[in-house]
Amino acid sequence: MTETSVRPEREAVKGRDNPGTDRVVELPNTTPPKRRRRYGGALLGASALLLLVGALGIGGWRHYQAELAVAATTHQIQTAVPDVQVAAVRAGDDKITVTLPATTTAFEAANIFARTSGYIEKRYVDIGDRVKAGALLADITAPELDHQITQAQATLAQNQATLQQTQASRDLAQVTNSRDSNLVKQGWLTLQQGDNDRLTLQAQQAAVGVAQSNIAAQEAQIRVLGQEKAYQRVVAPFDGVITQRNIDNGSLVTSGSTFMFTLMHPDVIRTQVFIPQDEAFGVGPGVDAVVRVPEIPDRSFPGKVTRIASALQPGSRTLLTEIDVPNPDGALSPGIYCTVELYIPRKTPSMIIPADAVVFDQNGLHVAVVENGTAHLQKITIARDFGKEVEVHDGVKPGDQVILNPMVDLADGAKVTVRSVRKERTS
Length: 427
Fold this sequence. Notes:
Number of strands: 22
InterPro entries: Beta-barrel_RND_2 (IPR058792), MdtA-like_BSH (IPR058625), RND_pump_MFP (IPR006143), YknX-like_C (IPR058637)
CATH architecture of the domain at 83-92 and 350-422: Beta Barrel
Order of helices and strands: HHEEEEEEHHEEEEHEEEEEEEEEEEE
Pfam family, one: BSH_RND
CATH topology of the domain at 83-92 and 350-422: conserved putative lor/sdh protein from methanococcus maripaludis s2 fold
Keywords: Membrane, Transmembrane, Transmembrane helix
Family: Belongs to the membrane fusion protein (MFP) (TC 8.A.1) family.
Largest sheet: 6 strands, mixed
Strand content: 25-35%
Structural class: alpha+beta
GO molecular function, one term: efflux transmembrane transporter activity
Number of helices: 5
Radius of gyration: 59 Å
Helix content: 25-40%
């Protein structure tokens, strides 16, 4: 509102406030100011509209530019050739090294039992003693055995006397039969007498056979008793070490049931190991092996496979294998825990690839092989996992280049650029 329009309004009000005044003041017409206010509102709306249109235009332009940038980036990604790092596939070693737990045993071990009944008269060895074959271990006394031997010898002498008597009777019957048979033929003796003489001779001959058999049986009995007498001296069956003793002087022993000693031959250690089925093929006599004991870390004990079972264990699918290890200084003891390294000749070819090259997805296990700048996805079968490397049987061949840590979206037939080749250790 302007100043000219305000003043008449004030004068008109003043005239109304002074009733004694006859002058009437009229207010001027206020229409022009209202028209000017409408023009200002229209101008303000037009300006806001122009600003809105301008903002929409700028936003649309920026969106268009962003779409162009995304399209350009997508095209660049689709047409770009990625750089990859590869490693060469190498052939597996001609021998498989297998490490398995095992337990050492003596090459020979025998539990010695009493073979005759009696009392221990004298014990000559104890635990830990080394003995030679035939060495005396203990003496058993059995006085009743001596009496049995004396009785058997007397019976033998009696049987021998009976034999002599029977032989004399046989000789007499033979002479009588020879003389009387001629007289029977001449008619001087009856036929009955001739039959009696002949049958008497046969009976005497049979009696001689019985006497001879009795003598043979008695002699065998004496030999049995003599062997029992010999068993009173307990001797070592082979060279070895006494590892157990169960008797002492004065102990009562019973033939066939009393356990006396355990003797082991430790100069050669026999180690039994059970080899899994996937590694058993190729194992045979002569395969090299090394035995190691955790308590002797600075020494290894070489040996060779000497015996294998003809069949695998049904429950565990393992092959029982025995390894003989020379032990001349006695460093190894029977019954200790050890590990056995076997160097088994490989029967089927295999390849070694880095574990970083293996991809596992919905299509299974595979690797990406680069050939002439093109990636090819090859399915593989892992035989063994060594951690940083894996052993495979198919899908690749020695010399192939496999991509390390391939991209997730790498497709079969995609073009790639080999950035570098990682060198792997040689066989």
